[in-house]
Structures are given as structure tokens and as C-alpha cells.
Design brief:
It contains 18 helices and 18 strands. With 631 residues, the protein is an alpha+beta fold. It has 3 domains: 244 residues, no CATH class; 304 residues, Nitrilase/N-carbamoyl-D-aminoacid amidohydrolase (4-Layer Sandwich); 33 residues, no CATH class. The strands form 5 sheets. Strands 7-6-5-4-3-18 form a 6-stranded mixed beta sheet. A 6-stranded mixed beta sheet has the order 10-11-14-15-16-17. Strand 12 and strand 13 form a beta hairpin.
Amino acid sequence: MERNRKSGSPTHAGAAPPGKPPLPPFRREAGLLLGMYVLSAVALCWVFPPDAVWPLAFVGLVPWAIATCRTQRAWLVHWGSFLVGWGFFLVSLRWLLPVTGLGYAALALYLAIYWTLTAWAIRTARRHGVSPIWSLPVVWVACEWLRATVMTGFPWLFLSHGLYRQLPLIQVSDLTGAYGVSFLAVLVNAVLVEWALQRWPAPGPRSSARQLRAGAVVAVVLLAAALGYGYFRLRQFDFDDDAALRGPRIAVVQHDFPLISRPPYGADPWVVLTSYVVLAAEAAREQPDLLVFPEATWSAYQNIEFIEQKEVVSETPRGSWAWGYACHQAISALARGDYQEANAVIAKLEQDARTVLPRLPETSGPPVAVLVGASSIEQFPEAIYPKTRQYNSALVYDRDGTQRRQRYDKNHLVPFGEFVPFFQARFLGFDLHWLYRWLNKLSPFSYGGTKDYSLTPGHELTAFELAAEAGTFRFGVPICYEDATPYLIRRFVWDGPRRRVDFLINISNDGWFLHSNELPQHLAICAFRAVENRVSIARAVNTGISGFIDPNGRIYSVVTKDGRSFGTGIIGYDIKHVYLDRRSSFYGRFGEWFAGLCLLLSAVMWLGAVFERWVLAAKNRISALLRKAGS
């Protein structure tokens, strides 16, 4: 026990400073905070597909935000938010565990930081009398935007994604992006939080009742405006009935070949190739304008430059040319309807496979344009290191079996899945390749560090042309995770006010995630890209979910089996018209203006917290030292 210098009265260690209310017992405060935090985390886990209990998006944050505002120990709020946020992401992203246990835990740990940043901001605002009604939606959107961009970005589990089936509400995405839908959901949470704080007062500054009334009015007005705008947009076109809005007929092909993150990684590639070709031949008989395979399912270097080059440099894997040439022959024969030639290729592969492989019908089929996901490789024999550049690509075969020289190379690569950081990197003149070698050894795809598997990103957003009965159309092919990246898809579709493509085709290989919740979550995210840019999207995905999304975000057809859209054994194809939309998009033209504004306002709150806690605290300590020295 020590004595207060001014009053001489005894003060217990750990008691609140003079002028502040006493702290409640630690166990009671920590237990209440933990219970409310866990309640929010559990509720939010149910918001996202496949459960998609969407009303929880409007109330799930309430317990967490109440406890954040009421708890007096700031360190308890910050660490509690971090730990519960980590738990939330561990549960919601558990589909990553089969691919990379270490990366899964590390990613969840990083994402949890944003829960603490949000708590920090709304507490700072509340100390200045600003209600969570105004601070919580702004900072939550700012953190979603940061998650989507920092360290190549991971734009997953936005609160808006749980509302993907609520079509009237999500139409505002063509104004604000998916961030605007998250803002509306968090705003409702924040009004409920302020209502609870008015009836359950906490120590410290309190918001006025006028803020609650104003916030409730703003929430109702914005929700009504969003729904009104949504119904207006939905009624502009009836895509099903208006034949003028129908674009080309696209066939998406889906097989079921799960993958694992250790050798041999999955089924034998010749089994995968032949199974897909046989399934595609069935779809080709319905004469679609374009037949689409998923992303890189049989893992071959298939680009025409490599096939024509024939000579292989030392860094190119042995046997890769012969395998790539066989894949090229099979797809070329399929495209021109020469099933006898395709079966001849399969017969040669059987000799290597030493097993019976599926065959196509002996009769010829109709020619069809084919889009295939494959690896591409460029060789540089004269270079010292590296002698090759590898890409994750989309290739197009025309109806005569010719592969176009125009291809799309994936721009946005996945860290550690498609490239290892610091490959050929230099920083301030220092060579960091040693760091790359160490990280490469940790990857399950490098065979213990003996293989450089890192891909090279593409730099162009290729627009392919497709000639169909209804005319000639342009389309882009975002590969896999790129359809989750809002800023990349916007650049695919829009060049300022000019539309670059008529529709998109997303090719993915979600076989790494073993029929998990990742599949419906990926589909839900893709639906927002359709609304934001007013563009149809066809999806061809190994293991699913393959199907079609219209420019209003409606998922109007998917590959199913026994009424299931995801799970084991869903094999088939779907053929539908993609729809054309000539409407403009404010978001398509101006991008993340709304999220950027929220980030700017949030930065004010974070900088205010830094100034208060660190700069002013340092000033007070210096003043105290000067007074002590003067006395």
C-alpha cells in the first residue's frame, strides 16, 4: 500500500487512478468479455456458406461490440479481440488445413489483427463521444479493404458474402462494391449496440440519445434506399425472357479429382486428362459455342510455343514435352471433332499408364471451340538463371483444332501456392535469394527445396474473341482465386467508362479443398463480382461448384447430382447462355472509392489513438521528469 501524495490517503496497488471509476474484478470482467466475444464469433461463423444464416449478419457483431465498449481494461479488449478473431478465422477457414497447416494457422493469426484494429478505433471514437453507430461500420469496411489488398490480399469472409442470395440488397454493389453491403449490415449491428449501451451504461463518456435516434433514422433510410435501388435494378431486365440479352452458349465441364499437398498430389494425370476429354465429348454433342475445362487439372505445359520448340533446357522437367504434346493432341482432336485421333492418343498413353483408360465414341463429333486451363512455359537457353518462366494460363483452341497464340497468364498469384516470396528479389542492394531458398524448402510443392515451382505473373488482362451464331463476343478468363479479387475483376471488365469484355469465364481447381466449405464460399464471392461489374460469369471448377451467374448476381444454374451442388462424386456438365448487360457500373468506373473513404476516416481514429496513448503519454512523462528535476 502506498500513500496518495496530495491527500495523504492510502491507495491500493492496482486501484484506478484518481478521477477514474474503480476497475471491476478481473475475473468477472474477463469472463463476461470472453463469453460475449465467443457468442459473436459463433454467430458470424454461421453467416457464411454453406450455412448462410444471413440474418445473423445484422446482429452477429452486437455482443462483441458491446463488450468492447463496456470493458475498462483496454489491454483485455485488444488481446481478447485478437484471440477470438484468430479462433473465428481458424473455424471459418478450416478448409485450408489439408493444404497447409502452418500457412492456415499463420493466415488466421494475421487476419485476427483486424479485429483488434476495429476495437481500437471504436473505443477511441467513443472516448470522444462518437457513437459506434458512426465508427463501427466505417472501420469494419476499412479493415475489409485492407484484408483485400495488404500482402497481395485475401478478400475472403467479408460480411457481405453471407448475403449473396439476398439479391435486392446486394445490387448496391455496382455503386460501392461488396463493401457497401457490409457497411449496411454493420450499421444495423451498430444501432443495436448503441441501444444496448444506452440501457446498460458503461463508465466513461456516453453517447447522447440524439445519436441513437439519428443513427436509427440513417440506418432505416439507407436500408430502404438500398432495397429500392435493388428492386429497380432487378426489374430493368428479365434475362430469362429477353432473347436479345442472350449471349453465346457455354458448356462448363466438371469432374471430381481431389488433390493433396504431397506427392503424388492426386490421381494419375493421364486418368484425369482422358476422363475430362470423354466427359467433354458428351457436352460437345450439344454443340455449344465454347466448351470450358477447369484450371490446370492435368498439369501439363501445353502452350503452342513450347510444343513447337521441342528442345528442352536442363531446368525443364524430364518428359514434360512428350506429355504436353500428348495433351495438346488430345484437346486439338476434341476441338475438331476427330475422336479417332483422340482415341489414338489415349491408346499411346495406356502404354505408359499400364491401365485401361476411358475412350471416346468411335464416331466423329461436332467441332467446338475449347478453352482449357494449362501450364505454360517459356525457355531461355542462353540465360544463366532462371532458364525458364512458368505461367498458369488459359489457352483457346479453335474449331479446326488450332491453338491460338494469344493466351492469358494469371496476373494475381497465390503466395506459397503458386510462388514463393523473394524469388530473384533484391532490397536496398541486398540479394534476398537466400530467404527464398529457405522459404521454398518449407513448401510442400518444392520436394524439399529441390524444385523451383514459383510461377511468373502475367501482366496483361487478355480479352479473347468468340464467334457464335448471335455474333462475335469478347470474354476474359480470371483464373481461380482471381475472381475473389474485386479490383482485378473490375480492370478485366472496365477501362474507365468503356466495357472491355461482354462476359467472364472463371476457371478454377478447387480440388485442393476436398469438397469443403470453400466451394460454396468461392461461388458466393464470385456472385458479387457479377453485380459490381454488371457482367455474366460462367464457372468451370474441378470438384465444383461449376455453373452460371447473371449480371444481377443470380446463380441460375449449377452442375448437380441428386440435388447436391457440392460434395463427393458430382461429375457432369452444364450448358447455358450467358447474358449480356449493357448497363454502366459506377463501381466499375471509379473502383474502391467507398472503401477508400472509410479507410481515410478510420486512419483518423487510429492516428488519434496513437497520439493520445503514445505522444501525450510521452509528453506527460517528460513534464513529470522536469517537475521532479525542478523540485
